[in-house]
Task: structure prediction
Amino acid sequence: MLDSNGVHRETWIRFNRRFGLETTEAMLQFMYGRRNDEIVCGFFGQDLPAAEVAARGAAKERLFRRTMAGRVEEFLTPGLREFLDRHREVPMAVASNAEPENVDFVLQEAKLAPYFRAVLNGHQVRRPKPFPDIYLRAAEMLHTPPADCIVFEDSHSGVQAARAAGMRVAGIGSTHDVLKGAALTVDHFRSPELEVWLEAQDRAY
Result:
């Protein structure tokens, strides 16, 4: 929903410097699509106590939310709100690896919550993406068979999770130009080929 990777990158760089850690491009690439506990352990080591992992992840996300406060609208993926309006009768869910506070923050700040019948964050399943758990749970909450679900993803781990759940995937190229496993990848929700593809999916299923 958000093209906020640049903000996350800068936030991690600022946060890591509190601990004397300089953030490399490889570390930033590792961050994309992962749950915070995985990122913190990847950056600071697997031997951190669980409470410290949680504390560092929460502190970084507080910094992210302070940075984004009042600015969420400008980071929405182009065409998202119009797309949601066009398809508002279709059961829709949010299934994100993000922290619960971040998911709630974005939906409230952008006033998007009414579009979604189910909202899931990365801590509501045991295994985060790239495992399929969160997407399977979303399908269950929407009372929709996984094979009838279409997932919009901007991360490699998310595409892998959706495919493992038996769902079709449309890639949004805000993070990666190519998303292996996606049926197509478009720049944003205003891309005309997206609606053409969706119509084809309706006819096929």
In short: The chain has a mean pLDDT of 94.
